[in-house]
Input
Amino acid sequence: MLFGDPLAQLDAYTGYRGPIACRAAGITYRQLDYWARTGLVEPSIRGAKGSGSQRLYSFRDILLLKIVKRLLDTGVSLHQIRTAVNALHERGVEDLTAITLMSDGASVYECTSADEVIDLVQGGQGVFGIAVGRVWHEVEGDLAELPVDRAQAPAVEDELAQRRAAKRQAI
Output
């Protein structure tokens, strides 16, 4: 992670349960459940498998949840939000902080420089913007004092998988 917070110590098996993710993203549990079931924002650490299992969301998942919430609040269609989320999934974590999402209420535009934002606004297309880096800082602040959980590492089956697991734990 970029900002040297306690969150930087989280590994691939450490994350946040649904109620914590809801609180940090400012959404209801019903929204969280619906978005996970429809594939809009799925938990990357552990999905729900049967009755009684709990989803576990990563920091990046919660960042996307908060962005989706903001886009919905501004009237962007769910179809356009799905397109934007898919584009964000394709980017690395470091790239997200430099993005500003702009929208005219119908489409979502990704801007990576001030010149792109200015061009979009001058063209009459951009009505509002979401600076992903700022949302990143908000989510970091929200999660700093909230409890984290650890998922069980998947069972290692062969020598190659054991080496990969050992390498991940060493990082």
User: Anything to note?
Assistant: Residues 1-8 have pLDDT under 50 and may be disordered. The two ends are 13 Å apart (CA to CA). The longest strand covers residues 14-17. The beta strands are 14-17, 56-57, 100-103, 108-111, 128-131, 149-150.
